Amino acid sequence: MKTLAAVLHERGLPPPYAESRPLVIAELELDPPGPGEVLVQMAAAGLCHSDLSVINGSRLWPLPMVIGHEACGHVAETGPGVSDLRAGDPVVFSFLPTCGHCPMCAAGRASLCEPGVAANRAGRLLSGAVRFHDASGGAVHHHSGVAGYSQFTVVARESVVKIDPDIPMETAVLFGCAVMTGVGAVVNTAKVAAGTSVAVFGLGGVGLSAIMGAKAAGAHPVIGVDRLASKLDLAGKCGATHTVDASVTDAVAAVREITRGGAETAFEAVGCENVIAQAFAATRRGGRTVTIGLPHPDRTLTIPALTVTAEERVLMGSYMGSCVPSRDIPRFIAMYRAGLLPVDLLRSSIIALDSVNAAFDLLDRGEVARQVIRY
Known about the structure:
The chain is an alpha/beta fold and 375 residues long. Helices cover 29% and strands 25% of the residues. The protein has two domains: 2-176 and 343-374, Medium-chain alcohol dehydrogenases, catalytic domain (Quinone Oxidoreductase, Chain A, domain 1); 179-322, NAD(P)-binding Rossmann-like Domain (Rossmann fold).
């Protein structure tokens, strides 16, 4: 079948992307789903920094590639062996397919699934297949097993989670990355306890979700740190009790003052080694720093080594919110229903697929939380 998709052929083209146009809207041929696979008609897809990092060359995925990893849609067709989904079922995508059998999955750490990571790095589905092809028959790779910037996509059954049909698609899409990653980092990775202090450095879609998660967990104070007034204002609406404008204030000193000695848990949601070091410095003795953002692979981090031992401070990573998608996406949706996660605040605007290049300019400048493509 034919599908219209946003395809990246060349990484590292300079902004403004509205002019350099790294994403080309093209008609592709999409194979039918193979064994254990599902054809999904896309309903919505979000624009995330992880997508931008593929465009700007920070993440070296194989090209050409259909970009987009935060998405939702409706099942159109199931391949052989898929018996628990049917046409019309609404689904949210997981950007890491989890095999359920590797050592990491067996240990309950699905976010580190070894076959899933290998498939994503190769730009292929969990089976090793590529289902997109260009006009000449050449393979076009899948971003994170999802390829969300396409009207239709074929994915592994393990890449989708069925949800209730009453959730609006422009809301459901946010659970595929922003909410899963940010809230998951709070409740799964850090296991933030009620009454403990939290600081979140970087208030994009993931950082704001971490603010929501900290508020829902009963943390206090909950401090949002960013350089844009609009993001700081939004953090307050999402549950931050305090905000720090890092463009005019020493953020480390401010967090340490608010918390009277340092945050018990700090989250870094920027993907910058310098901000990780700031978040670490803003924690107290015995504190934890959780890194959520994805720095450039060539970057290195420097922190005072003695404090790790002498002050029992912890630096830990959180990928995909340490989530088991089939467990956590429904759980976080239930929290949204209960009024604990004001997820709709994350959505900055609804855009069309052909506006995607200009939309990435806004994301690159940090002016938005989540823009959503609505099909």
